[in-house]
Amino acid sequence: MDKIELARERRKQRRLEVLGTNNPICGTCGESRWQCFEQHHVADYGRDDTTVRECYNCHRILSDNQRDHPSFNAAADPLLDRIGHFLLGLVDMLRLIVDKLHQFGMQLIERASIETEGAQT
Amino acid sequence: MNAPVISAISDHLPIALRAFTGPQFFELKDVDAQPSKAKKKPPMSASPWTLTFDTETQADAGQGLRFGGYQLRNAGQIVEAGLFYDPDGVTPAELDLLAAYADHHCLALRTREGFVDEIFFARAYQFRARVIGFNLPFDISRIAIRHGAARSAADAEAAPMRGGFTFTLSQQKIYPNIQVKHLSQRAAIIRFAATMGQNTGRSQRKRGSKVSTRRGHFIDVKTMAAALFARNFSLDALSRFLAVDNPKRDKPDFSAPISKEMIGYAMGDVQATWECHERLMARFDRLGLSGTNPEKIYSEAGIGKGYLREMGIAPWRKLQSDFPRHLIAKIMGSYYGGRSEVRIRREIRQVMLCDFLSMYPTVCTLMGLWRFVIAQDMTWADSTAETRIFLDAISLADLQDQSPWSKLTTLVRVVPNGEIFPVRADYADTGETTIGANHLSSDHPLWFTLADCIAAKVLTGRAPVIVEAITFAPGQVQDGLCAINIGGNPDYHVDPATSDFFKTLIELRQSVKARQKGASGAEWEAFDTEQNALKIAANSTSYGIWVEQNVETRPGRRAVTVHGSTGEPFSFKTDKSELPGSFFHPLLATLITGAARLMLAIAERLITDEGLDWCFCDTDSMAIAKPINMEGEEFARRATRVVDWFTPLNPYAFHAPILKIEEVNKRLGGDELQPLYCWAISSKRYALFNLNEDGKPVLRKVSAHGLGHLRPPYDGDDPPSDIPAPDGTVLGKGIRRWHCDLWHQIIMSALAGRPDQVPLDYHPALANPSICRYAATSPDLLRWFKTYNADRSYRDQVKPFGFLLSMSAWKDWSGETIGRVAKAGRRKAPKPLKPIAPFDTDHDKAVKSAFDRDSRAPVLAEGLKSYAQALAQYHLQPEAKFLNARYTDRGTTIRRHVHVAYVRHIGKEAHDWERQAVLGLDADSAISYGKGEQAQTSIADSIRALIAEFGRASTAKAFGLSSRQLEAAISSGSMRQRNPIAHNLTVRMPKAVNELRRSQLVKSAEIFRLQAVVQQFGLRETARREGVDPSNLRRYIASI
User: Fold this and answer.
1) Which class for B367: exposed (0-12), middle (13-18), buried (19 or more C-beta within 10 A)?
2) Which helix (DSSP H) or strand (DSSP E) does residue A40 occupy?
3) How confident is the model over B796-817, as pLDDT tens digits?
4) d(CA B545, CA B548)
5) Over the stretch B979-1019, which tens digit does the pLDDT of each residue have?
6) Which fold has domain B48-198+212-286?
7) Residues 192-221 of B with CB under 8 A from A
8) Are the CB atoms for B916 and B430 separated by under 8 Å?
9) CB of B527 within 8 A of CB of B512?
10) Does residue B48 belong to the interface with chain A, where contact is any CB pair within 8 Å?
C-alpha cells in the first residue's frame, strides 16, 4: 500500500464515518461511490435535523427545489411549519424518484423493443 | 410427616437484606429544565479492515515484549503480514534471524514503534478496522510505552472505564491512548480514549451536533468464545474446538533465544486467532442478532439481551420508569440467591444425585413470567386476605399441580416465628454474608416471596403469619413485538406475543438432543452446536439479566438514598454506585429464585417423608442419601418415587421427568445404576465416587472449590505414583489431576477411619511454598509493585495485565531476635505478612524474590506456607451457617434458629468475587448501606432492654465499655452520629447478647448448685465453705 492508496483509504474511511455508513447509496438515483455523497436536510437546513444521504447531483437538485418553498415566517407555529417543510422536502425527493423510475421504465421498454427487432432481423 | 420441633433461638444476629439505591432526592433534576444535549450519531460498525496481532514476551517478571506478529486484512484478504520487535528485547543475532525469517516468508519487519504508528494507528485506527486478538488486554499492555489509571469525571454517575487502565502506545500526540477496564476473567472493555483537541467543528457545535469520539472496534476472541459457548478457552483449546485449518502449535521454550520455531509459532498464533475469529463471527451471524454489535458482547447475558432486543422487547425500566421505589425496595428485600447447603457432612453415604431440568426456565414457565417480560408495565394490588387463605389451604399435594404455581407472583410481609426462611447473615463473623435456610424469628415483619412462605410451610408444617401481601400482574402486551428464529434456524421460530419464550426454548433443545442421540460424527457435532445455542439462549434470558447491577467504585464518597424494605428511605454516603442493567426487573429475579428454593424444599420434604436422607443441595440439584440400614434396591425405589413426584410439574410438550437422575449415578461406560458414594465437606465442596472390588474409591465427580486459585503443585505428567489416575470424565472444566489426588487422599483417610488426618505427603511438591497466580487487572492491584517498579526501566517493570504471584505467610521469622529487651508498654500485635512476588515460571526463583506487599520487606521462603500447610484444613472446612458443622464435627448439620438483632442493608453480594477468591475477603469491597435511622434507634432500645434485664454494669462489660460510656452512647442523638462507639455497639451487639445470655445461664446453674448445697448444709456452713458472707450469699441466691 503506497502513500497515495493510504491517503485515499484514510479519506474514504473518514468520509464514511461522517456519512454514518460503510455502504452509502443515494436514495434517489442509486449512486454508490463514496466520494459523491452529502447529507441533505429534508426539511431544509435550520428547520429540522433529519438528514438523508444524497449524491452531489441529486442534492443540488433537491436544494435548488427548496428555494421555491415558502420562506421563513417568524409568526408561524414552529411545529406545524417544520412538518410542512418536511413534507415538501419529501415530495421533492419522491418527484426525483418518480422521474428516475419513469426514465428507467422507458429505457427498459426501449431496450425491449430493440432486442425484439434484433431477434426478428 | 410430623412437623419438626423448632429449636430454641441459637443466635442473635444482624441479617442483611438487599436494598435499592438511587441519587439523593434533592439531586433529582428537573428534566424540563435541562439544556438540550448535543446530538450524537449512533456508533458505526467497523469497516471491512481487520488487524490481528499477537505478542511474545520474556518469561520474567516484566514480561516485556520481544517480538510479535500481525496480519492486516481488507475484506478477509491479507494486505500486509509482518513481524514487529522491541529493539531492547532482542539481541543483534535474534534481529538478524527475524529479518531473515521475514525476508524468506515475505513478511514486513517493523520495530514496535513502526508497528504502532504505521499499522496500529495509521491503518487500523484510521481505517476504522476491527482489532482482533486473543486476550487483547495483555497484548495491548505489551506494546504500550506508558500506562496510568483511566480517567473519568469524578462526579459522573456512570463512568464505565473507572478502575481501568490507560495505555499510551505512541509518542505521536495525534494518536489516542487506549483504555482497558477488566470486567472478569473472560472479558474487558477496550476502547480508544478521546484524542487531544476539539473533534467537533465550530459550525457543527453551533448547530448542536457533536462528532463522536472514535472508540474503535476491539474483538477479544477469548471473550466472544466464552459468551457463545459459556465456557473458558485457551487459544489452543479453542482452535481445536472450532476445528480451524491452522490450530495453535505446540509452545516452544520461551526462555531460550528466539528461534525459527518461535517465530513460526508466533505467526501461527496470529493465523489461528484470525481463523477462530472467522468461525466465531460466522456462528454469531447465525444467531440472527442483527441489532447486536459483537464487539459489545461480554458474556452470555449479552446474547440473551440481544434476543430480547431482536424480539422488539423494550426494557421494563424504560416503560415503567415511574414504578415506586418503595416497591422496588420491597422486591429487592425479598431477593435471595439459590439455596446451597450441606446436610450430611464428612460421612461416607451412598447417594443418588438428581438435578432439575433447566430449573430457572422451568419455574419461569410454571409461573408464567414471560407475560411480565413482554408487558408494557405491571400492576400491583393488596392481596392480604386472599393470600392468607391460599397459604393456609395449600398442601404438598396441591403443589404437584401446575395451576398454583402461576399464583406465586406475590410478595408477602410476615413476622417470622421460627419458620424456615432464607437468612442472609455473617454466620462466621468474618464480614462475609452467606445465605442459609434457617429458622428465623424477628420482632419486626420482613418481606419474602410467597414461594418462600410455602416452602416454610412445607418444611415446618405451619404457615407463617402474613401481615401484608402484594400481588403483581402483567399489563398489556407491548406493541411492536416480532417473531425470531433462534440461532437463525427457521425450524426454531418463536413469536414472543403468542408463545412462552422460555418454554419454547427448552422444548426445542429437547428435540435437538433427541435427534442428537441418533446421530454421529459431523451430524452429532452440528446438533450439539444447535442445542448449545438454545441452552445459552434459555439460560441467558431466564435469570441473570433481570437482577444485573453494575458496581463502580467512585473516587470519593457520595450520598445516595437507600430504599430498604424495612423502613423509610435514608441517606448514606458511599463510594460504591450500583447501576441497574438495561433489562433490570428485580421482581422476576426474586420470583425465579424463590420458586427454585420451593422446588428444593419440596424435594427435601419428599425425601424425609420417604425415610431417606440427603447429603447436599446446590441451586438445582440434590444428593439423596441412603439411610445406613436400608437395602440398596429399596433406596433406589424410594428415590425414584421422589423423582417421579415432580413429573406432573413438567410444563413442556415433551414427556420427561423434571427431576432427573444424573449420568454420574450410572456405571462408567454403561447405563445401569451403580452405588455412588458421597463425601461432602460443605455445599460446594464434595466428591462423588464408586468403590471398586478392593474397596478403593473410583472418583466420578469432584469439586475444585477452594482450590482453583492455587497454581498446580505438580503437573499432570508427574503424578504421585501410588494414586490411580482418575477417569477422563472427571477431569476438565477446571478439574485437574492434583485436585483428584487430594480428594482421593481425603476419601482414603475417611475409609480408613481417620477422616480428620489426611496425609499430605503423597507428592514431594506439596512441601513447596503454595503459590497463587493472578493478573494485575486494576491500578490498585498493580500499586503493590510500586516500590519494585521504582528503579526499573518501563520494560522491566511489572505492568498491567502481567501476572503476579502471591503466597501465604506461615510465620514472620524476620522479627524474631534473641536477647532483645522488651520495650515498656503493650506489645504491638504483629501485622500479618502479605507476600507477593513478580511472575516467574520458575517457582523457586519466584519464592526467592517474595516480599511483603505492605512493608516491601523480603519474606524468607521458610516463612511461606507450603501446599501441605495451605491445604491442611481443606477437608475440615466448616459450614458456619449451620450448627454441628465446625471443623471436626461430623454427621447431620442442624439448622440454626436466628433471632434478628437488626437489619443491615447491603448491595450486590457477589461484587468483586473473582479477585477476592484469589486474594481473600476484602471488607472494603462489600457494598454496605448501614442500618438506617430506625434500626439505629432500635439498637439503642435493644441496649436499654438489655440494661433493664441484666443490669448496666454487666451490659457495659459485655460491650467492652464503661457504664458511663454505654449510657452516653445510647443517649438520644448519639446513635445517629458516626461516632466509633456507636458503631462498635452495633458490631458487638450479637456477641454481647449471646455473652449476656450465656453468663445468665452460668449464673443460674451456679445458684441452683448453691441452693442445693444450702439445703443440705445450711446457709452459714455453705457460706463458710464458699468463703463468702452469709448475708451476701442469701442475697445472691435470692437474685434469681
Assistant:
1) buried
2) strand A37-41
3) 899 999 888 888 887 655 555 5
4) 5
5) 667 667 777 777 788 788 888 888 888 888 888 899 888 98
6) Nucleotidyltransferase; domain 5 (3.30.420)
7) 208-209, 214
8) no
9) yes
10) yes
